[in-house]
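Example: Alcohol dehydrogenase zinc-binding domain protein.
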Amino acid sequence: MSNTGGVVPETMRAVHLTGYGGIEKLVYREDVATPQPQNGEVLIKVGACGLNNTDVNLRTRWYHRSVNESLSEQVALTGAKGAGAEEEQGNASWNQESIVFPRIQGAAIAGRIVAVGPSVDAGRVGERVLVDPQVRDLSLPLRAQLIAYLGGDRDGGFAEYAVVPAANAYPLSSSLTDAELATFPTSYDTAEEMLVRARLSEGETVVITGAAGGVGTALIQLAHIRKARVIAIAGKSKEERIRELGAHAFVPREVDNLRDAVEKIVGPQGVDVVADVVGGPMFGDLLKLLRRGGRYSTAGAIAGPVQPLDLRDLIYKDLEMYGITCPTPETFAQVVGYVESGQLRPLVDKVFDLSDLREAQGELVKRAHVGKLVVVP
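Written out as structure tokens, the predicted fold is:
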């Protein structure tokens, strides 16, 4: 290990996920061994790490295929029902693989490289970086390259230090704080990939669900960059803040008839793109809102993953549907470029100390925030 970025302690503060279940499975410790970068890896001193639904999904075992309930506050605090026994390790991550405990979660890392492993240029020590959480095998087919996810399949950033592949640490120049930078990974690359795959372009209309969350607020800004017309769906109390981000129209999710509310805005022609991060019962209406040849892109189903599909909408309207799990390296690089050019606005709703991660996750699932929650070590 090459280390010219200051003294790296042998132990560090971190939060261990000790198993599947409720929020009590998150255990704060001050005696965790500091990881060492291996061949092709770098050691990052974590400046901040953003929270994401994937942290809660994995802990509660919501990814298990036997689960068919929304990611409610109760589920997030106590664990998902019907997810199998604790000792059944498989089928509990996004890719249906086993998780090894204890695990350090946290995918959205901003910080600075303090050491490098063999084969990595020692000149990278000292770089300020934003971390792509997707660890890929680029020899695999394009949509099957994701082999590990930070904070799930390997340790992440809810700690003072984290080891990542050198290729995943993107150097950047920015006046933003680490807490602000940590709002971008996971949320913004997912959102960018959703719009890239759906080919959203200038003058088109996009409906964005879950518009107040991390991915939703990212979608609004990225659609605005593309000069598209944005119809945002979120809790009615968040309308003013969402319009400030660039939404042209707003529909409260509490409305009695979502489809009618959107159709009153767009008229009979329908919308070009739906960017959905919620799923649940509104899924069928979202497909019916699309014009013929429209595109549906999804990266989440926290309101319920198993929903009926009227195949006549898909077939006779010639729709395209895209599921997003693995944004490409080019997509992440594009987000970094937007950040450096100042085209994206970081939305930090609240910052928590690492020792308060339980409280932070509890706040996340209340869905009262706009933008992102972040922890700092």
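The radius of gyration is 20 Å.
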